[in-house]
Here is the input.
Amino acid sequence: MLVPIVKIGNSQGIRLPKPILEQAGMTDMVDLRVEGQSIILAPPAAHPRAGWAEAFQLMHERGDDGLLDPQIATAFDETEWEW
Here is the structure.
């Protein structure tokens, strides 16, 4: 289906027919990305942090869950800092 690119304020866009959005399972948000010379619209993930718990568990098992920039206590931290 060919659709025209229309001016929307300072941007450009396309109008997607409601039946197409419903068929694809998209309601109010979409995941937008570019792959090669194609623009991909997909339904968003069910939860923004889906899979994070499993990823963190795997990092822990691999020993890859340490601080990237460990803080080093200074003399100021040890003697002068007050909470």
